[in-house]
Structure formats: structure tokens, C-alpha cells
Specification:
Structural class: alpha/beta
Protein name: Leucine-binding protein domain-containing protein
Distance between the termini: 32 Å
Number of strands: 14
Number of domains: 2
Strand order of the largest sheet: 2-1-3-4-5-12-11
Helix content: 25-40%
Mean pLDDT: 86
CATH superfamily of the largest domain: Response regulator
Oligomer: single chain
CATH class of the largest domain: Alpha Beta
Shape: globular
Keywords: Signal
Radius of gyration: 23 Å
């Protein structure tokens, strides 16, 4: 996106803390659901109480650091604060959803708030009469923010959709809390099952980084207790600056070696892939199963050649998805850039849960299996029970995709 567009949109959002962005949507004549469409600018002025259902979106815009007390932009017109990009992109996706919902006649008011506003502003907002009218909270959050919004949602008896943070944040006994980005435990169970399905008879080497905790190993070990097919896992600890010779003893000669990167350290993962590639053959490449944060790595680089790389992810947008192609063209023509993952997440989260709120009201627990309004991928939202009390702690999306890349090209998505 060009920086002028960023600054313009950013300036509009700076006003939104005082006057939240509202998408006042009027009823449409009866008829079937229409496909999502291109975005139109949403109103940036406060509206009277409409009787419509209310949705609050929290996203990290860092407006206080971008604008001074008089509302003047702290940077020049060619500069945009990088820390605000993800939050703004999430909101851009939400705007796509707003326009689609408007065209379908869905009755909602949408409010956007800066989750990185000062503590005083946040406390004032959450205690306000305006906020007490909310029916649904959607957040792009960090750990402490997830805890705060989940607590507020429980008090208000409304759902809180955590769109990005892959952790329960220690939250228990809160059926209002929904995690869309699966936890590390869910990924580890998914990886174990993937290995069972594809490499159950193979020797598998799990490379760990020295100094890391044992969460990944413990998750594998715990799941192993409840499954009939036990994998032949061998755990090997490596220094962070290891070299190819440290891998050599574990890489078989003529047969491909199946490996797991047992660390969330992206730099460790990159080094592991690069060193394994040097020991790999194009006719029978070694296989490395990585972590969910590997989607940030550029595997097209030559140092990853001849290695089969697989990693799990909850969000995958197929190249054949027509709506995604339309979004990409819109960004290309308007902003001269490609939409990020956060654009798609903002779009799908608001569109999907906006529809569910309209259909089922604030009690979404019984409607989590409704998938009519998915846009790019799929959710499999399941209740997570507390093993000690056997009560519902929260809901979590359990859907995982496994992306296989060779020489940087996606070969298969499982």
C-alpha cells in the first residue's frame, strides 16, 4: 500500500477513538445471501442508537504514538509507523466485511478501537455506557489484552473472538472466550497425527534447541499415552550455532530422513532447514516438519533447495479462491501491494461472526459448527474442557492445514 493511503486511512482512524467507526446497515428485501463484495468507505461519525446489534473490534493501531495531543501526525507524509501495519491491515479486512454485510442487509453497528490506547483510555471505554451496549467483541490481541477482554466478555455475557493470539492466556471457566488461532498443544497433536498417517513406520528425529523448554516434547509424550500408534521418535538437542556435521549422524544414506523441528525459534528452524538441505538429494529429499510460525520464512531461497518442508497452519488461502483473487486485485489497483494474512483474517472473522450474531444472538456456543459464512478456509471450533473439573474453559479452532513446499513451491496442502 502506498504510504499516502496509509496516512490518510490512519488519520481517519485517529478520530475513531472519540467517534468509533460505525457501519450502519439497513435491512434489505428478502432474498438469498449474496457473495461478499469490494469495500466501500465506512462512516466515520457517531450515530444515534439504532437498535441494531453492536460489535466492538479491537486492533493494535498505536495511535497515541503516531499522533500528538492536538491530533497532528508525528511523521512526514512519506513515513508510516511499521508497528501499526498489522492492526491497520486487520481493520482493512474488516472494512471489506462491512461492505459485504451492508450489501446483504445485515443489521449491525461496527465500532473500532485502538487496543494500544493508554490504560486510562481503555479503562474509561470498557466502563462506559456505550461499551455496555456491545453484543460481540473481536480482538487482534496480545496475552494481557486477551485476559482483559475475555474477563469483560464474561461479565457482559457476550462472546469474545480472539482472532490471532494462539494461547489460552491462562483463561479458565469462560465459555465466552473463542480462540481462532490454534494453541501450540493443538498444533503438536496435529503434527503427531500427521506423522502417524504418513510416516508411522519411519524413524523420526526431533531436533531441539539447547535452552528451549520441553513443551513440544511434553505435548508429544502426553498425546502418545492416548493413541494406539506410537511413533519412533528420537530427540536430539543442538546448540543454536550448530553446523552440518552435527546432523550427519542422524541423516540416513540412501533413504530420506524424517525430521521434526522441535523449537519455536524461527532462526533455529531456518538454520536446520539450510543444513538439512545440504544433506538432501533431489531424487529422494529429506523431510522436515516445522512449526506453525514457519509461514514467515521465504523458502524460495536457494539454500532450501532439495528439501521437502511441511508446516502446520490454521489459515491457508488457496490460490484458486475467487474471492481472494478479487481482494488481491483490489489491493493491487488501489494500494499497489498485496493483502497480508491479517487482511483476510479481519475480513473473514467479522463476516462470519457478524452473520452468526445476527442469526443466533449473543449465545454463539451452540452455533460454532455453522460454516455457511466461511470465506477463505474453514474453522473447526470445539469446546475445550478442564480435565480437573470437566467444565468448559473456552472454545478453540482445531482446524489445521499442512502445507508442503519443495524449492519454495507449494506442492500439496493436506
Amino acid at each position: 500500500m502506498t504510504k499516502k493511503w496509509f496516512v490518510l486511512l490512519f488519520s481517519c482512524l485517529a478520530m475513531a477513538w472519540v467517534a468509533p467507526v460505525l457501519a450502519q446497515i439497513t435491512p434489505a428485501p428478502t432474498g438469498s445471501q449474496t457473495p461478499p463484495t469490494q469495500p466501500l468507505p465506512s462512516a466515520l461519525a457517531p450515530q444515534p442508537d439504532s437498535g441494531r446489534q453492536q460489535i466492538a473490534i479491537f486492533t493494535p493501531l498505536f495511535l497515541d504514538s503516531a499522533f500528538d495531543n492536538t491530533g497532528n501526525y508525528r511523521y512526514d507524509a512519506k513515513t508510516f509507523p511499521k508497528q501499526s501495519s498489522a492492526g491497520l491491515e486487520f481493520w482493512e479486512g474488516a472494512e471489506l466485511a462491512i461492505d459485504s454485510l451492508q450489501k446483504e442487509g445485515i443489521q449491525l453497528d461496527i465500532h473500532v478501537y485502538d487496543i494500544k490506547a493508554s490504560q486510562q483510555q481503555m479503562d474509561s471505554l470498557l466502563a462506559s455506557e456505550e461499551f455496555k451496549t456491545m453484543d460481540l467483541i473481536i480482538g487482534q490481541v496480545a496475552a494481557n489484552e486477551a485476559v482483559k477482554l475475555a474477563s469483560i466478555a464474561a461479565i457482559m455475557d457476550i462472546p469474545f473472538i480472539n482472532a490471532n493470539y494462539p494461547n489460552d492466556a491462562g483463561i479458565q471457566n469462560n465459555p465466552h472466550y473463542v480462540i481462532l488461532n490454534p494453541t501450540l498443544l493443538t498444533h503438536c497433536i496435529g503434527i503427531y497425527r500427521f506423522l502417524q498417517k504418513n510416516y508411522s513406520l519411519s524413524d523420526i528425529v526431533v531436533f531441539k534447541k539447547k535452552g528451549d523448554d520441553d513443551r513440544i516434547k511434553n505435548y508429544f509424550t502426553e498425546f502418545e499415552k492416548s493413541t494406539a500408534v506410537k511413533l519412533k521418535l528420537k530427540y536430539v538437542t543442538l546448540e543454536s550455532n550448530f553446523t552440518q556435521d552435527k546432523l550427519q549422524p542422524y541423516v540416513t544414506g540412501d533413504n530420506k530422513t524424517i525430521c521434526v523441528a522441535g523449537s519455536l525459534d524461527v532462526n533455529f528452524g531456518q538454520t536446520l532447514c539450510q543444513q538439512l538441505a545440504l544433506l538432501s538429494d533431489a531424487s529422494n529429499p529429506n523431510v522436515i516438519i516445522g512449526m506453525p510460525n514457519w509461514d514467515v520464512i521465504d523458502f524460495e531461497k536457494s539454500q532450501y533447495k532439495n528439501l521437502e518442508i511441511v508446516y502446520s497452519t490454521a489459515f491457508y488461502v488457496p490460490a484458486t479462491n475467487k474471492l481472494a483473487t478479487t481482494v488481491q486485485e483490489n489491493f493491487k489497483n488501489t494500494f499497489y501491494s498485496r493483502p497480508s494474512d491479517m487482511v483476510y483474517r479481519g475480513f473473514e472473522t467479522l463476516y462470519h461472526f457478524g452473520h452468526l450474531l445476527t442469526l443466533y444472538g449473543k449465545n454463539l456456543g451452540s452455533s460454532m459448527s455453522d460454516k455457511k459464512y466461511m470465506l477463505f478456509g474453514d474453522f473447526d471450533i470445539q469446546p475445550v474442557l478442564n480435565r480437573a473439573t470437566m467444565t468448559l474453559d473456552y472454545f478453540e479452532n482445531k482446524k489445521l492445514y499442512f502445507v508442503k513446499k519443495v524449492d519454495g513451491v507449494v506442492k500439496t496442502v493436506y
